[in-house]
Amino acid sequence: MIKVLIVDDDPFIRQSLQVLLGMDPDIEVVGAACEGNEALELLQKGLKTDVALMDIRMPGCGGVEGTEKIKQAFPQIAILMLTTFDDDEYIIEALRNGASGYLLKNIPPDRIIQGIKTVFDGNMLIHPDIARKLATFLQPTARQELPQVQPLESFGLTKTELAVVASIAEGHSNKEIAGQLFLSEGTVKNYITDILSKLELRDRTQIAIFYLKNMQG
């Protein structure tokens, strides 16, 4: 059962999402909040959550700041942004802060459910247009700098590790990567652990950002 926390300032959207998600037997809506700080408080009080479905633009603590706060305190929670077409820069900032991807508010209900399951499984949802912009707009944070632009081969990764990095950046799951490289899923997980250690990155999203920043280095 995937435990989902809904974070949106519009009560109609919160209620609609609760009804929609409640229809799927694999999803349980465990709570709702109207902005990022309220969501963080619920989590700090012990609300068990696997995925936070979070609006980007909210009064008080918006989705970008809320993502940063939640990922710092609860890095195991996957955060999926709800957004509109004109939120590109917000999306990029949210991804930099650790979001696993985003959904457009006008997509069919079944795609929202599938998106939640996708990020719960450790995958990312990044549209190709946003992926291209990541390489241009994303800059390292002061707290945790990403490697400067260099040829990918210069980071001490093996050929297999480089292939894993490229596949992660393309949004493939561990199962898909295992099939592509003729490895077991456990071996892929071990490779990812080693890659994170070598590059001093924290999660799959930063691996994707690393690849996009350095693929043309």
Average pLDDT confidence is 86
The radius of gyration is 17 Å
Count of DSSP H/I helices = 10
Query: What is the strand arrangement across the widest sheet?
Result: 2-1-3-4-5
The proportion of strand residues reads 5-15%
The count of β-strands is: 5
Please identify the oligomeric state: single chain
Shape: globular
Give me the strand/helix succession.
EHEHEHEHEHHHHHH
Give me the secondary-structure category. Answer: alpha/beta
Low-confidence stretches are 139-147
Measured as a percent range, the helix fraction is 40-55%
Distance between the termini: 42 Å
Largest sheet: 5 strands, parallel
Q: Any descriptors?
A:
13% strand, alpha/beta, 50% helix, 217 residues
Brief summary:
50% of the residues lie in helices and 13% in strands.
Describe the structure.
By secondary structure, this protein is an alpha/beta fold. A 5-stranded parallel beta sheet has the order 2-1-3-4-5, sandwiched between helices. The radius of gyration is 17 Å and the shape is globular.
